[in-house]
Amino acid sequence: MAELKHSIVKSNESAAGPDGVYYQFLRHLPESCLHTLLKLFNNIWTTGDIPPSWREASVVPIPKPGKDPSDPSNYRPIALTSCLCKTLERMVNDRLVHVLESRNLLSKNASIQLKKSAFQLALHT
Predict the structure, then answer these.
(1) In this structure, are residues 52 and 85 in contact, taking their beta carbons and an 8 Å threshold?
(2) How many domains does the chain have?
(3) Which domain of life does the protein's organism represent (predicted)?
(4) Structural domain boundaries, residue 25
(5) CB count, 10 Å around CB of 122?
(6) 124 belongs to a structural domain
(7) Measured in Å, how far apart are the chain's first and last C-alpha atoms?
(8) CB atoms within 10 A of CB 4
(9) What proportions of the chain, in percent to the nearest 5, are helix, strand and coil?
(10) Residue 45 half-sphere exposure, CB side, CA atoms within 13 Å?
(11) What are the residue ranges of helices labelled H in the chain?
(12) pTM for the whole structure
């Protein structure tokens, strides 16, 4: 449960993905719902069966700062993905970094970079 709570607390206030779930919603879940969510994550971890909606993204064009918004080339795409999926990815990433560090399989610089970056595992079924 501590891993789940830590992953939710570490999340930023990004927009919801196609499933419409916001981090703010996850932060206010009662303990009983967090237990249910943890059961779901454990089931996904065990079976490798990721919900199809978690593989989807809504792509939104965002204007580049200081550029003419009437020019389509002055936009960059942002992919909005499921906050639930990103929470699970963060948990997997934290576990992976812990195992790699505890077995001295990462250089100090690589370890720091993995913790700082927006590193996400690509989960494939």
Answers:
(1) no
(2) 1
(3) Eukaryota
(4) 2-116
(5) 5
(6) no
(7) 25
(8) 20
(9) 55, 10, 35
(10) 14
(11) 2-10, 23-27, 31-47, 83-102, 108-116
(12) 0.78
